[in-house]
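Recap slide: VOC family protein, sequence and predicted structure.
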Amino acid sequence: MVSAVQNVAIDCGDAYALACFWSEVTGRPLDPDCAPGDRETAVLLAEGPMLYFNQVPEPKTGKNRVHLCLRPDTTREAEVDRLLALGASFLADHREPDGSGWVILTDPEGNELCVLRGDAEGVD
C-alpha cells in the first residue's frame, strides 16, 4: 500500500491573496471555485499535487521545515527579479561562483522558497 500526495498545504493569513501570488509564480490558474475572502483556496498545477492555501488565525513564527524549490524556464536571476516584482522578498543568497546554488526568497506572508538555476542554465 502507498499514499498519493493530494496537495501541498500552506497555512496563511489571507488564503486568496497568497493563492493569487502563487498563481502568478507558477503561471497556473486558481481553482475556478475560489473567490476573494475564501478561507481555503488552491492553485491547480499542471502536474503533481495542487497548492492548497488554508487561512489560519495565527501568524508565521519560525522557519519553514518544508518549502518549495522552483526551477525557472529562464535564468535564476531573471526569475528572482520577476518574483521580487510580484511581491516576494529576498532572504539569502547561496549562489556559487560556478553557477550552482540557489537564492532564498519569501512569499508575501514570509514562507521561504528557493529559486534554483534555470533550465536555460543547466541543472544543478
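Helices lie at 15-26, 76-86.
The mean pLDDT is 94.
(End of recap.)
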